[in-house]
Design a protein that fits this description.
The complex is a heterodimer. By secondary structure, chain A is mainly α. In chain A, helix 2 runs antiparallel to helix 3 and helix 3 packs antiparallel against helix 8. Chain B is α/β, with parallel strands linked by helices. Helices cover 37% and strands 28% of the residues of chain B. In chain B, helix 4 crosses helix 5, helix 5 packs across helix 6 and helix 9 packs across helix 12. The chains are: A mainly alpha, B alpha/beta. The interface between A and B is medium-sized, with 28 and 36 residues. Bound molecules: adenosine-5'-triphosphate and magnesium ion (MG).
């Protein structure tokens, strides 16, 4: 891989590790997002109607798409605007790194741990379901399409959210506003996931794969758009009065 | 043009405006390869902005430039930045990373492999005398120490052209001297150095040539050339007793154009001090004067600077 992208990722990881807010977010949020679906499915009585079970399991699975989206967006929103505020951006921009490499490094650094956490959470969920849930729930969760959906959609949604967060970050003048706006990126994805979970789009293997491919294409486009929006001069010289 | 092939920096009618106000205007100069070039000017003169334009951080409003043989443009920016490095006005260290980690990041950005990076980092830290602080966090360093790390960072990629934006501001006298020695060492290795500073004695001592900027370029040349351009040569004379008839003494010496008495000192405007001074000494002795002092008046770069900029309003005439 490109050494400059790797250098950015490595530096970002080092900074995360020493940032209590990031560590806290990475530790607490996944626990909450795991607890909700576990409680939901374990509380389902064995004789619940099939339709209700389908909805409950669908909602639970939604959580595992949200983990890798929510975790990195707050960090990513801070990624560019935060560096600018600290005054660390200018020296970086004097090196040969390209805008797209800097953004890719930041995006990957934010996504990789979050996606990994999302998968781990899903694995824990699957084990708990296998061991303790009613047979009807096990039958709903242990399906090829559910596993494929989790493995493929988690990362592509996460990357989508990251690009939106970064695009906001390179154009905003305030860290907090950037973080809040970035939080909104999950809305369309919640909608999309809901359509799937509630069966408006048939939750078949083909549908999941097609969706993953579509979002992946949007992700590549997102990288280009975020790079376009990255304006060195604006970042270094434009300050608004409301800062 | 032939000279431009060997020039490390060429600026032609470079202008940068922020809104309607120019940060600098119609600036043209050339810096030869291996030269140490001083860029002097008051606060707000446009020094930092010039460095930012030449290092492709921001685009000029008008004019063209070339650095290390690469035109200044968005398209060629990465190639240009590979050949240069910039010590920015504010060091901008990552406060949560150690000194070594800060440098490691930049070594990576310059595309150095792990082995090469380790060697260069060690050398750069040694060069700024910070080897024993490598494990300290950026946030725990004093202003001057951060400044030195910023300088070490600019040495990592062994640049052809090094931009130093006020490298000694905030440094104590010993560190300042060390930085000056470092710059002298870079010059010996053939690195072109573009140095902005407020410290005129620094520019005078370090720089082959200087430019004086106040939104537009006021003057450019070797420090001694600038002095000669601006100030007529003069000789200062002090004698034990006032001369009875100074006009009579001075008019007999060839090359004395005019004189005046100021605070017990005679100040003579002369053509060439090396010829006039001995003749003047003889004339004074003949006239029975006891000479306490007879010396060519030395103008410092500071005098040049004050003469050019002194009574101008802040940030140029606009
Ligand atoms: N981002 C910006 N937006 C608007 N004006 C700016 C901006 N940056 C610089 N300027 C203006 O351009 C002029 C030149 O600024 P510059 O920072 O280049 O000066 P300088 O010579 O480096 O000064 P100093 O010695 O104080 O560092 C100043 O009037 C400054 O206010
Ligand atoms: Mg400046």
């Amino acid at each position: 891989m490109n050494p400059r992208v790797l250098a950015v990722m490595r530096k970002e990881f080092r900074e995360y590790r020493r940032n209590k807010f990031v560590i806290f977010t990475m530790a607490i949020l996944p626990v909450i997002f795991l607890a909700i679906p576990v409680i939901t499915v374990l509380a389902l009585p064995a004789n619940v109607p099939e339709a209700a079970r389908k909805v409950a399991v669908g909602q639970s699975l939604l959580m595992f798409f949200l983990i890798p989206m929510i975790l990195p967006t707050t960090v990513a929103a801070y990624a560019v605007i935060g560096e600018r505020e600290q005054g660390t951006l200018e020296p970086v921009l004097t090196t040969p790194i390209l805008d797209r490499e800097l953004l890719l490094g930041k995006a990957l650094a934010a996504t990789v741990p979050a996606v990994a956490l999302g998968w781990v959470m899903f694995a824990i969920f699957a084990v708990v379901v296998r061991l303790f849930a009613a047979q009807g729930v096990i039958d709903r969760v242990f399906r090829v399409e559910v596993f494929v959906a989790d493995i493929t959609l988690g990362p592509v949604f996460a990357v989508f959210a990251i690009w939106v967060a970064l695009a906001i970050s390179v154009r905003s003048t305030d860290v907090r506003v950037a973080q809040q706006l970035a939080g909104l990126t999950i809305l369309p994805v919640i909608g999309l996931s809901a359509l799937l979970s509630f069966g408006v789009i048939a939750p078949t293997l083909t549908a999941y794969l097609a969706l993953a491919a579509l979002v992946a294409a949007v992700d590549v486009l997102g990288w280009r758009i975020a790079t376009r929006m990255f304006d060195r001069e604006r970042l270094l010289t434009r300050y608004s009065r409301s800062d | 043009m032939q000279s431009e092939a060997r020039s490390a920096i060429v600026a032609r009618s470079l202008t940068k405006r922020f809104g309607p106000r120019p940060a600098f205007e119609d600036v043209s100069f050339e810096v030869g390869a291996g030269e140490v070039f001083g860029f002097l000017g008051p606060n707000g003169a446009g020094k930092t902005t010039t460095v930012r334009v030449l290092s492709t951080l921001i685009a000029p409003t008008a004019g063209t430039a070339e650095v290390a043989g690469v035109p200044v443009s968005k398209r060629t920016g990465a190639e240009l930045r590979r050949r240069i490095s910039v010590m920015t006005e504010n060091p901008g260290l990552y406060l949560r990373l150690s000194v070594h980690e800060n440098l490691e990041y930049f070594a990576g950005l310059y595309g150095l492999g792990p082995v090469g990076a380790r060697r260069r980092i060690a050398e750069a830290l040694e060069a700024v005398d910070m080897a024993d602080r490598a494990r300290d966090l950026g946030g725990s360093l004093s202003k001057g120490l951060r400044q030195r790390v910023g300088l070490a960072r600019a040495l990592l990629n062994e640049p052809r052209v090094l931009f130093l934006d006020e490298p000694t501001s905030g440094l104590d006298p010993v560190s300042t001297m060390e930085v000056r020695e470092l710059i002298a060492g870079l010059r010996a290795r053939g690195v072109t150095v573009f140095l902005t500073t407020h410290r005129l004695e620094e520019a005078e001592r370090l720089c082959d040539r200087v430019a004086i900027l106040n939104t537009s370029l006021r003057s450019i040349g070797r420090p001694d050339e600038l002095r000669r351009q601006l100030f007529a040569s003069s000789i200062e004379v002090r004698v034990a007793q006032p001369l009875a008839d100074p006009d009579h003494v001075f008019s007999r010496v060839e090359g004395v154009r005019s004189w005046n008495l100021n605070d017990g000192r005679y100040l003579l405007q002369v053509s060439d001090p090396t010829i006039v001074a001995p003749a003047l000494a003889r004339a004074l002795v003949q006239a029975g004067a006891d000479i306490l002092r007879l010396a060519e008046v030395q103008h410092s770069l500071e005098d040049v600077y004050l003469e050019l900029i002194g009574d101008e309003p802040l940030g140029g005439e606009e």
